[in-house]
């Protein structure tokens, strides 16, 4: 156990404890270090102005990727190397080729978003991604610019194509860092401090366990603990003062939960696996799901956020939930067992996991450790839909998962799950029953749409009206028919 | 080497990409500096009963809480009509309205203290929409009327007529750097303010008035803004006054930087509009008369609403000749933050309306809308008088439209789109070509002036200061280019200095796209004074009576070198007898010749009479056209912009790279307004879409898949600085091609009625219209009125949650 966080910023070592660990990385950089090149606009991970590179130990090497520093708190950064825009210049103070390209192509106008774009491009170099138009669009989805209309930024990125470009991380000696991290990473971090204000005082603590047992024990002992996986939601709530936890546990170092197993027909995903890594695997095994992941969030978010975090967060408009519902996924919950060698484990079907808005089956002393589901088979049709105001990096207005099992041209079994139409994702039992035994015909799906509409009673909110959501519920059945059943239109609709 | 016309990088590009370019909140804290924040009204309309400001001020880390009673000068301001309060007095008029300023030692202290705020407000009935304001008879300023010919007669004898209502929502500026200011107390009560403002002079004056100081006791500077788009033309005032008030009261430096959420919730936006229109036209589609009843939703204060409405009236014709017309414009007062300037300044709403009318004329006549647009487009020698009497001169509107139709293969693609719509069960396509004509100059005449200070130093380098502010638009880059060429020196030898009221007094806001026109010309005029002196000196220096060379200024040449210091000056009769610019400057200094001058420029020829509503308010017009093609999912309403082609007449470009950025950036910003940027409020007037999670500006994936941008040469354009044209605002309005393309697509659903479409055309709006067209056929009256539609989205239920991914 240690009482300090260890990390590096642009090659310089920092040891942080107490109150200082309880702030966002961007606040720390701007306030404590005076590194004001990192800008904060939204403080919610939606604009990318605070993007920078984070290097962490992976397979005994440093692996770098882009993240939003406004929604990473320092307690998530133990044993990490942060590279900011100030760290891009080389020893001779020469700017990086990415920066040069942005200058030459007039990729900046007001300049406020520019460091974020520069860092997102630098992140692409870390993974040696080719600079094609489509990869550049993907790599920069999480960065908003209000001035340029993006074209000259794309020009800048494309001018780097085919060039031998140095990784920004290469100018730092990470061997010494690695040794330092290796020495520290197996020790849990625990920091406590008194927050005093106006005569009152509050105990605040954060904890970074290294094993599942440690984590479960801590959770058992601290009823008020807020568990942080990627922190992409909790940090936002904290920045916006909607959540002020006094006790935080960060799962950053929890070993063994970053796995992904594909076994026969089953995929099992570890709770710490980031969306980016999950997406890589889904490309091959579950293209439908991969497509949703693609538009689901920015790269910065996907590099931090996890599937388990999303499940635990229990949002009814989480993009992937209808998928998990119709594929009938299961969630592994692990619970602390005092004086036992092994943890308590149980599998819960997702269809039984949510009891109400933000109310789940998970007990206080439990953590989600794995999620598994069966891959669709040949006679199964699976289609996922997401409707949002903006196609990319927007929260859903409406989501749907439609799964049919066919036999001799007839629907043997149907599962429908709609999100954004109630306090939890809803299955539609009446419409499912109606579809059973029916042929794949347009009238059937028109009728199913009407039934689906009647089964839900959505509300109006900032994203959409209830009318729109009801209409979408009806139309999505027709859309499904045209895309999956009506061969004549299949090509066109794609 | 001349640099005007060259694509040079942005003046601050190196600073931008390295993060070394500093914005207000990036400046290092000075000793003792205080953090400033404000306590805002949570109620849209109400009477303030009490606030525990005394108790709040006692809390740990809090240095002061100031209300309107603490303002030493006066508490009201407004750029046109002084009807706004810095801090609310007894009445609050919008959610987010500042009631008190709170100053603390740290952000944390303020965060804590704000939780202890006890604010009692007695609620009064709020007014949110134009319809409600009409009932309550709440207006701002006077109703304006433009007349030409006899509309009533044209209407009564018309071969064809149509009527309807155009409804459009507002738009958040969404500059990335939120409002910010730092104030430093100076000697003898002076205040020095660093503000992210398009209008340092206004900050200077308003801070002085609020603090009861003379203008000479306040200095305002602005190095750069992280975007502004009009949102910092007037509304940077409130944060600046807050910081200045704290600095004056505490004698400590004071800094305020709004969060994005607070910024969006408490500042004004582009005006929502509602326009009732009637159009009379011939069977061929020639417009014979237009009647417009225009209403804007002004919010709770006048701000710039009167000037914005005026610009709507000036652009309600867009590019079309209307022989008989009656336009009437009224601003409605509502309980929202005062709406304000945003790129286009009322122009986009007026132009969207007339484009909508034209599209409907085409639908009534079952003709291609492009033919109707072309038919009604301003001509050259006749049919070229605007509703306000200005002749549209030296323009290329018909030529631009024809060239663009040709290069974009409009006609062939229209056939393909129509074919597609006949065949597809799942998708709709739409195609539209819309022109754009935007008047350049402030329509308020006295604002069309600029001054500049040019200092030449003994090493031949130059510093330039103007009243223009840099917000990303490249003003500083362009002025550097202009000045370098004027002296015949290298670009590197010229620097543009921080904008400061100390160096340039009584300046106009950097707005109306006129920044380069006014400040560039003022800088050139200053340069010319110095250069004339230098030329005279050089002519006597090079004169050589022995060789028969008499002093002659006509023969003196200034030639830029490749780098600083090697620019040369010579007499072309003795070209081998060169001296460097640096040597000439040194010589001038020794001869006691002034090496610093001020230039002053006023835009010539413009005038407008508000009594008769006639005149020539614009020095010239920037024009262009766009053609866009969209793809719509029939089931979800989802819109995809597939291709856009733009063509503009921007005169001789000073910096083609910067102008390209302005064109693309302006267009995409407009696309946001007409598609996804959807301001939604609770029925209590609270903005619900107050951050990028819920307010969706275009991201990089929203670019058209095919995007062609081009400019056209206009040899007839011979005026303005280096024959350039303003380029800031005009491209935004090319976005109307996208909105009209949606309308075109909807018309494929049914051809017996005119589809309705509000702006923005969100997926929700599009699907609502598709459903309406396919299912509610009886409800579609022949008279296609949507007068009952509201220009503001009010959500009547509490929000479900604030979910994140």
Helical run tally of chain A: 17
Q: Outline of chain A, from the CA principal axes? A: globular
CATH superfamily of the largest domain in chain B: Aldehyde oxidase/xanthine dehydrogenase, molybdopterin binding domain
Oligomer, anyone? heterodimer
Structural class determined from secondary elements of chain B: alpha+beta
Instruction: Give the strand tally of chain B.
Output: 33
Low-pLDDT windows of residues of chain A = 488-494
Helix content of chain A: 25-40%
Largest sheet descriptor of chain B: 8 strands, mixed
Tally of alpha and pi helices of chain B: 19
Largest interface: A-B, 108 and 96 residues
* CATH class (first level) name of the largest domain in chain A: Alpha Beta
Percent helix of chain B, as a range, is: 25-40%
Tally of extended strands of chain A?
Answer: 20
Q: Judging by the overall fold, what is the CATH architecture of the largest domain in chain A? A: 2-Layer Sandwich
What is the radius of gyration of chain A computed over CA atoms, rounded to a whole number of angstroms?
24 Å
Number of domain modules of chain A = 4
Question: What would you note in describing this structure?
Answer:
- The complex is a heterodimer of chains A (494) and B (805).
- Chain A folds into 4 domains: 69 residues, DNA polymerase, domain 1; 62 residues, Uridine Diphospho-n-acetylenolpyruvylglucosamine Reductase, domain 2 (2-Layer Sandwich); 115 residues, 2-Layer Sandwich (Uridine Diphospho-n-acetylenolpyruvylglucosamine Reductase, domain 3), CATH 3.30.465; 114 residues, CO dehydrogenase flavoprotein, C-terminal domain (Enolase-like, domain 1, 2-Layer Sandwich), CATH 3.30.390.
- Helices cover 32% and strands 24% of the residues of chain A.
- In chain A, the strands form 5 sheets. Chain A has a 5-stranded mixed beta sheet. Chain A has a 5-stranded antiparallel beta sheet with strand order 10-11-16-12-13. In chain A, strands 6-7-9-8 form a 4-stranded mixed beta sheet, covered by helices on one side.
- The longest helix of chain A has 20 residues.
- The N and C termini of chain A lie far apart (55 Å).
- The C terminus of chain A is likely disordered.
- By secondary structure, chain B is an alpha+beta fold.
- Chain B is 28% helix and 25% strand.
- Chain B contains 19 helices and 33 strands.
- An 8-stranded mixed beta sheet of chain B has the order 3-7-1-14-11-12-13-22, sandwiched between helices.
- In chain B, a hairpin with a 7-residue loop joins β24 and β25.
- In chain B, α6 crosses α7 and α10 packs parallel to α18.
- The longest helix of chain B has 28 residues.
- Chain B is globular.
- The C terminus of chain B is likely disordered.
- Classes of the chains: A alpha+beta (494), B alpha+beta (805).
